[in-house]
Amino acid sequence: MIDTHCHILPGLDDGAKNEREAIEMATMALHDGIHGSIATPHINPGRFDNNLNSISASADTFANSLVRHQINFKLRYSSEVRLCPEIDYMLAAEQIPFLTEDRGQKRLLIEFSTTNYPHGALAKCRCLLDKGITPVIAHPERYRYFQRSRVDIAQFSRLGCEFQITASSLIGKFRQEAQSLARAMIVEKKATWFASDSHNLKSRAPNLSAAYEEAKRFTDQKTANQLFIDMPQKIFAMCPGIPFDTSISTICTQKAVTSDYFLGKNDED
Ligand SMILES: [Fe+2]
């Protein structure tokens, strides 16, 4: 399986605290049947001041550390952007990593407040769609106002937004209301796909395999595969955030040493 939402890059947000924990999270993901992930650090101005530069640099470093630890784990990077006024400035400055990019069409992973209804969110999503950017609403089943009113979720759906559900919600690791809404969104064909949103090794583990098994209990195999396997693979293939190729970096370093040698830079006087 592929995971398209996790907080594995160390030290950027409330996910992995350091390289050691990030490596352990990758190992845990592999044990859960996940062979690659899109790292999606929070972009939440004032709380998590990340941007394309900081996220891509961190992904390069972590990709190198996976190679160093001989862990065969595919890594790409994107972001989980809090709906906020700063989105416009950051998009204009090309400082938000998209989830996918394909022939001018893009996807952006967006999160809302869990408790307070995001007034103006519909208009903001409409503006993004007009620009060729599909908002992917992260974990809608955990938002209290969506749990109370399915009408609101339908409005975002009609607009053309997509919905990424958290695997742990389906197996009851969040509130019971989140589990009910996750189930309902599968049955009503509102769920676009599932991801882990893993943050650490214990309270926010991936749980993708368990959720996949749970999904198969009340939907058909084809739908479960679409939500947990096919769609995540498609998203991963279209994710533009590919860390610097470590094998190329090694070759470049060797070339630099070679040229220095022929230029006589390393000669002793
Ligand atoms: Fe997240």
UniProtKB/TrEMBL annotation:
GO molecular function, a single term: manganese ion binding
A Pfam family per the record: CpsB_CapC
Record EC number: 3.1.3.48
UniProt record similarity statement: Belongs to the metallo-dependent hydrolases superfamily. CpsB/CapC family.
Reactions performed catalytically: O-phospho-L-tyrosyl-[protein] + H2O = L-tyrosyl-[protein] + phosphate
Source organism (scientific name): Grimontia sedimenti
Protein name: protein-tyrosine-phosphatase
InterPro entries: Caps_polysacc_synth_CpsB/CapC, Pol/histidinol_Pase-like
